Amino acid sequence: MKQVTIATPEQGLEGLKVSETAPPPEPGAGEIMVNIKATSLNYHDYGVASGTMKPTPGRVVMSDGAGVVTAVGEGVCEFAKGDNVVSVFFPDWQSGPPQVGDFSRTPGDGIDGYAREYVTLPAHWFTHAPSGWSHAQSATITTAGLTAWRALVVEGNLKAGDTVLLLGTGGVSVYALQIAKAMGAKVAITSSSDAKLEKARALGADFTVNYKTDEQWGKTVAKWSGSGVDHVVEVGGPATLGQSIKACRVGGSIVLIGVLTGIGGEVPTALLMRKQIRLTGIIVGSRQDQQNFVKALETMAFEPVIDKSFELEALADAFRYEESGQHFGKIVAQY
Fold first, then answer.
1. How would residue 294 be classed by pLDDT, with cut points 50, 70 and 90?
2. Model pTM score
3. What is the dihedral of CA 51, 322, 63, 166, to 10 degrees?
């Protein structure tokens, strides 16, 4: 079977290697064999594949994997041969409050991931995929989709009529736009590209702002919403958090899900305190969160936005496209 590994991390994306390897063993007790059909690219995967996160040489990349069950081991009742499934980001976090603080057991980082055609793994490393979704669509759930769901619904308790601010038009933000609109919320979204903002409006965004031409976009969004938005999905980190706090209402919620502008910086703590905003940091979610999300997706009338698809052998090119920032929504690779 084909797989993509990190041969030499120091070479960055040039160090990704496509190779042939023996297929995995037949599943034992509690395991399933899955023919992986698609994966989707995330900023975390880019950090690993580019060598920035100092990955282990020989690591099979990619945290997201969707495919079809081809064999079932003894004692597995949840899945059957022919079921469409999607991987979970934290295999050991099944349910309950957060239990993981690193990526040592995350596929594609601390352990081998899904840039390979077949895997034999414990059944609880997967959930069912949404009925009727393609493998490429399902592959977007593991990281981006579940992060958006947890930020808005699990942590934010989103309800119809709420107002939401989303930053940028990457995978998580576009997913969050679709979830929020499907649940009856009003959404503001930012970008440095007017063309991307037009696409966001076509998906239902109620208000858009170009943060390059409006440096005080936080105040602009707050004015649009009246007294500030109820929820902010914060992907930027230190360089954007101050404006997000300005955009948020008194008693509102900011969920920090990314650090695209750096891992440290100044935070306007006095304003955060004065507005009594709840600031929560999250990393994806549990298997139970994903199961709940999949059930919800089967009642929502939208499909994930896939900007571009690549072959597995062209994974390095897919990451270069992600690096360019041209994409709107998700980038996938199909096998």
1. very high
2. 0.96
3. 120
